[in-house]
Amino acid sequence: MTRLELSPAPSRLDVVSFAARYTAEVIRCLDAILPDLPLVLPRLADTVRGNLGDRATVYLLGNGGSSAIARTLAIAATDLIGSGGTGIRWVGAWDPHRIAAESTLHGFDAAAVGMLRRDGVDHRDLVVLISGSGNSRNLVAVAQHCLERGVRLLTLTGRTGGALAMFDPNGLRVDSTDQQVIEDVAHAAGLALLHLLAATHADEAPAPEVLDRPTGAEAGADDRPAMAAVARRRDRRCGSSRRPDRRPRTRGRRRRSVR
Asked: Is the pTM of this model over 0.85?
């Protein structure tokens, strides 16, 4: 039996050095992708504003770690933006039982397209595809389906964008070949985009209606009759014998008159 030779455990200096290099790479990629966020923001903003129709849906789809990122971003979007008053939905990955059933019928590569078709995806919706390589065949099939149906598309990929770059040349790209770096930067960039969208949506929301009410001395004068009526009702409920018009007693004894 061949004996396995284990490499020595890394030293603390090795771990710190790796963490520093990895962090520097993530920051470099984030600095490169953040200026592109305002360029793709209108695709999300139009959907949230309802310009594409009521009851729109934003689908965030991916495989493996990208699927976990998609689900997290959908939850964050619901907390940050909500429905926006248009009935918008945020879908971050499907029920695995639905995926298994669709895969059994049509194969895994066509499962995502089959579920979009069953959900009735159309021009009102937006599909966000997250992929490290950009070559996942099931996501490429989704991009083709969106192109044929006129559905808006946004891709968030790494490396050169892969096959998905042909469907969305202006999508978001993480400038790295490290899959872990791509996923970490994609997650951070997605959250930054949602915060930017939430700020834009808050600025465009109509201001709450302010009712005209008297202020200062006018407000005090107008409120006096109402406050007196409230006080009288309170006294009656409590059984108080106090009368608001009763004159207070004078202090001290009265002097007797001297005849």
From this structure: no
